[in-house]
Every structure is written in structure tokens, then in C-alpha cells.
Amino acid sequence: MAPKITHCIFDMDGLLLDTERVYTEVTSTILARYGVEFTYELKAPMMGAKAHAAAEYLLSTTGVPLSVEDYLTERNQMQLDRFPDCEPLPGVVRLIQHLKRCGVPIAVATGSYRAAYELKTQRHQALFSLFDVVVLSDDPAIKQGKPAPDLFEEARKRLGAPDPAHCLVFEDAINGVQAAHNAGMPVIWIPDPRANRDITPAPTEIIDSLEHFDLVKYGLPAFE
């Protein structure tokens, strides 16, 4: 039986906004100079992690002869040029507007740092202003990135500290699914089509798009 949900917490990259495409394109461009292909298998462990930890993993795994600082400097500049063009993914606007209209408390809990968040959302202020809480990875309260539970636990606290069992997380990354489990929260996983869906611990449910989320199943108000 699906849990009764009173609060919803959303990841952002690849879940609300189509930013994962930018991450892939930029990293692929950098790695290609060294003859390295940026496969999904290489990318998956990086998704949802803090930038420095993800960069360390990438460079140590591939052997690319760049320092973390040099890689991040180049990567960040290339990404910042492209982030403003990112659009909401299917089903996002309708769902968020509906939850807000129905009085369901909603939060964003993202591994993005503030400068990147502001660029990604600058053309979508009407959407992101609907969220009651936004927690970013460079918030002083966040000590560890996903799969640690810090982001989701902090979002829950700022939503009024409801029971974690009634806070539904929406994620596209395996690290995020694990972070939700570590926070004691049920989680809807919307994976990349290339992802291996047989993961442990398993998500509460797997769907292909937010367009397919069944509100009533979780005790939330149905679309009108």
C-alpha cells in the first residue's frame, strides 16, 4: 500500500528542469579531448553528488590529467553559458501548480549551488516561486551531498518537520533515491531510460515521467 503523503520534496536537475542534457554535453566535450567517452555508466554515480566529489570521481576513474579545480572551472563556465536555455520537463508545471493550488507543502532539494540555481531558474521564476522551500548544496546546513540525507532532511525541517514517512521525494538519480531512503522518506524514481532499474534499496515506485504520477494513490488531491 502506498504511503499517505502530506508533503512533497523535489530534486531539480533532470527532474524539474532538463539540465542533465547540459551536464552530459559539457562533460563529453571536455573528456573527448583526452579520448574518453562520457558514458551513462560513468555519469550515473555522479548524479546528485556535490560538484567537487563528482569531479574527483570522474577524474580518478578516467585518468584525465586535469586537477579538480581546473576541470570545474572550465566545466562551470561552459555550463553557465547554457543553463539559461533549460526548460521544464514534461508534467512538471501542471503538477507543481496543482500541488500549490491544493495547499500541499512543496520543496526543492538540489545539489546545485546558488549561482547555478539562479541561472537555471531565471526564465522560470513563476514556477520556482511556487515552492515553499528551496535548499541548495552550498547552504551552510548541508554538510554532505547525496546519497547522504542532508538535503532532504533540511528541506523537511524547513517545511515544518513533518513525519519523514509522509514526505514524498521525487528523484531521477540513484544517489537521490539512496538519499531519500537514508532520510526515511518514500521516493518516486524517474530514471534515465539507460539506467539499470534493479537497484537496492528499491524506490517506492518507478515511473517514466511526472506526467504519469498518480496523485490519488498517495492520498493527494486529484487533478481537476
TrEMBL record:
Cofactor: Mg(2+)
InterPro entries per record: HAD-like_sf, HAD-SF_hydro_IA, HAD_sf, PGP-like_dom2
SUPFAM superfamilies, per the entry: HAD-like
Organism from which the protein derives: Thamnocephalis sphaerospora
Keywords: Hydrolase, Magnesium, Metal-binding
Coiled-coil regions listed: none
Record keyword Zinc present: no
Listed name of the protein: HAD-like domain-containing protein
Residue stretches spanning the membrane: none
NCBIfam families: HAD-SF-IA-v3
Top-level taxon: Eukaryota
Molecular function terms from GO: metal ion binding; phosphatase activity
